[in-house]
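Worked problem 6 (solution included).
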Amino acid sequence: MQNACPVEGCQVRIDKVAKEGDELRVTWTANYRPDFARNHIHVYWDTFTAEQVSNDAEAHGVKQGSWVPTDAYPVYTTGSEASVSRRNGSTHLCVTAGDRNHNVIDPKLFQCTDVKDLL
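Solution. The predicted structure is:
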């Protein structure tokens, strides 16, 4: 699988979430091969929008939020800015694709999933 985005854009789909200690283990599928130095995955809580979890957020008129960039694939365990302890009351974990500059590639292509039963 290539790192380049296909015609339909880089997309990430959360397939499964399970509790792992105090954190969450997320299994996902992407239509590209995540690579931290290139196109990768931004993980965040829905207290922020996809537009906010990007280094160029302010250029798009929104305040920059918090996220974790990762190329962990196909399994990722929450931590750092995406830690359960940093969710600020949110019950929805989200993902979108980011580029090498940590800008969101297409803020319309994101997915959030309800994890309240695991918190």
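Discussion: The chain has a mean pLDDT of 97.
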